Automatic annotation (TrEMBL):
Region: Disordered, residue numbers: 1-21
Any one GO BP annotation for this protein: negative regulation of DNA-templated transcription
Keywords: DNA-binding, Transcription, Transcription regulation
One Pfam family it belongs to: TetR_N
UniProt organism field: Parafrankia soli
GO terms of molecular function: DNA-binding transcription factor activity; transcription cis-regulatory region binding
Protein name: TetR family transcriptional regulator
DNA-binding region(s) from the entry: 46-65
Domain HTH tetR-type residues, every copy: 23-83
Length: 220
């Protein structure tokens, strides 16, 4: 039997499916858009430029995302979780580790470790959004959505600490979530790592200390 015949089934098996091709195309478009948003800003970026950088027709960009605001949302979602798997942030394995950890201080340490990784990916894009929200209603709406998602995440953290009876006396779950949201805001990360020149690791350790003091009090 010739090599071409023997190799035939393998080649057919390795051929990407239509769904895989679609996913790869979307991934290239999102990556191209994120690069352009960071390089030249949201307002200056056009879908034609995104298409050119992704190596696709502009009609393909419109077909998959419809408009630039939707493309930005997708870029932020991918940056937040680190991939394009259809799994929400709070359904990721790292939350299972948090849920199984009995020590509330360690819960906060694990949370800020994950937060450092997320902020490192998403903060540059958030800075682009934050700088344009006053002039673009779509971006303003996107900022509100992102902040709402972050608040929901911190309610989950506050709930984990409350389940361990670790919140300092008089602090409700909602108040704890708001404090955590404030302390670990994207703006604080951008100021710390940009204006102050902190390393992401210093931001992480400082934030973990502040969270423990604010949420756990004397038990920290």
């Amino acid at each position: 039997m010739s090599d071409s015949v023997k190799d035939g089934p393998s080649r057919v098996k390795d051929k990407p499916s239509r769904a895989e091709k679609t996913r790869l195309t979307r991934r290239r478009i999102v990556a191209a858009a994120a690069e352009l948003f960071l390089d030249q800003g949201y307002g200056a970026t056009t879908l034609d430029q995104v298409a050119a950088r992704a190596g696709v027709a502009v009609q393909t960009v419109y077909f998959h995302f419809g408009n630039k605001a939707t493309l930005l949302k997708e870029a932020l979602d991918v940056a937040a979780v680190g991939d394009d798997e259809p799994v929400a942030l709070l359904d990721r394995p790292w939350l299972e580790e948090l849920s199984a950890e009995p020590d509330p201080v360690r819960v906060i340490e694990l949370w800020t470790n994950g937060g450092r990784e997320i902020m490192g990916r998403v903060a540059p894009l958030l800075a682009v959004v934050r700088g344009t929200v006053g002039t673009d209603p779509d971006l303003a709406a996107q900022w509100d959505v992102n902040e709402g998602q972050r608040r929901a995440a911190f309610r989950a953290l506050a709930g984990l600490l409350a389940d361990r009876a670790a919140l300092r006396p008089g602090l409700t779950v909602e108040d704890a979530a708001d404090l955590a949201f404030l302390i670990t805001s994207a703006e604080n990360y951008i100021v710390a790592t940009g204006t102050l020149g902190w390393s992401p690791e210093l931001w992480q350790s400082t934030t973990a200390t502040l969270l423990a003091q604010a949420l756990l009090g004397a038990t920290a």
